[in-house]
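WARN no homologs supplied; continuing
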Amino acid sequence: MKLLIPSYGHGVASIRTLKLSTSLVALCNKCGVGIMASTIEVFLCYAQEDEGAMRELTIHLGVLKRQGYLTVWHDREIAPGTEWKHEIDEHLNSANIILLLISQYFVDSDYCYLVQMEQAVQRHERGQACVIPVILRPVYYEKTPFARLQPLPSSRKPVLGSGWPNRDEAFYDVAEGIRKAAEKLLKNLQQAQ
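OK structure emitted
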């Protein structure tokens, strides 16, 4: 069980996540102390060539992070000296939502496609995570293992394609879809308690 605690340091608000026992959360809720018992952990899986788009998406998810809906993790958060493969596997295996940032670079990357995407789809099939393909660039993906999953943007128009007046509108659509998925997962987690 996780507890979100606002923390303020150097004039910046952030959220710290602490692990709690189920009984402590139940006791706090029974006493009228409102606790968000869980937060949705989002894992971003992307090709290095799409790092700029990944960072833009992370910024568009900022409000949801501040509201405590979710935390976002990507490989650029790995600290120097850390065993990177272990760190990625740990987050990929604990994430509630896994975003596959789809582009020709993603599909061409052995690590993204053959390792991370395969692991994500397996967790999705077992009901352990919600995998959401985010179509960044025009690319053929119809015969891929994730093609049967509902992608974002909702129109299926690539975020970086010519079908949007600007990127912000495309990323807004993606963020709204992620919010809906996070709310659904939070509701399911709360009902399971």
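Residues 55 and 102 are 14 Å apart (CA to CA).
OK
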